[in-house]
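On clarity, I found the account of how folds are encoded harder to follow than it need be. What matters is that the chain and its backbone geometry are given together, residue for residue. For the editor and my fellow referees, an illustration may be useful. For illustration, here is how one protein appears when written out as sequence plus structure tokens:

___
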Amino acid sequence: MRDELLTIGRFARLCRLSVKQLRHYDETGLLAPVRVDGVSGYRYYAPEQAGDALTIALLREMDVPLAVIAQALGAEPESRARILRAERDRLAERISRDQARLEMLERLAEAGLPGHEVVMGGEPERRLAVVRTVCAPAEIGQKVEHCVGRLLPALGRAGIAWEPPLWSLYPLDLEERTRIAVGVQTSHGEGVPGLEFETLPAGPVAETTHIGPYAQLPLAYHALFAAVHERGLRPRAPVREVYLVGPTAAPREALKTRLLLPVQERTA
């Protein structure tokens, strides 16, 4: 049997992997040799293991995590396809986020920090019908769309009249699991299944308007929070986004979003 096996060095060359990688895959349980010499500790691999080794090398080249590769290798074909499609979707989402970051960096490189005008004003009390969810910061765009898909049908079923535009409410700090709300202004309705009602108190706010893709909203938030701190004010939750011109009405370059940040005077 030993004559049919390959030393770790020969197997590594056959599979275009390094000996160090093969040892790591053995230690993590991803690809174990078929035999380990009890005296020398030398590892030996069977030629038919080359298929798995080459698959590992290919997936690692695409930055697929080892845990996902282990799941895929141990799965039946149908389950393996589902695992790899899920990883494909995660990669597509990461590429989308990276593309948005590239666009922001390009904008900063060409024009510096954008000159969002921040003004101080006052907001009246507003009563919103809202739906809530909890998500990671990277999921906010997707979850806002999901909330809109819950909110508007619930209003329609209940026959509740509402005033556009749509609003989103956020905490001051976007944590790993962030609670957000999406709502519309209404003076009607109570006790509607799937809906909550929240009253935003009247008070002073700092505000700015962002024109452009939602992915570039951090540039507007930078200007908004900087202006608040420069004025010696204390920001308060919830931060409010008001979608004056949304994706159904304009291309992404022409989206118009009003940002409102409630403030109060700092106390000594």
Observations:
- The mean pLDDT is 88.
- Residues 6 and 66 are 24 Å apart (CA to CA).
- The chain has seven helices and twelve strands.
- The helical segments are 8-15, 19-27, 50-61, 66-73, 77-111, 140-158, 217-230.
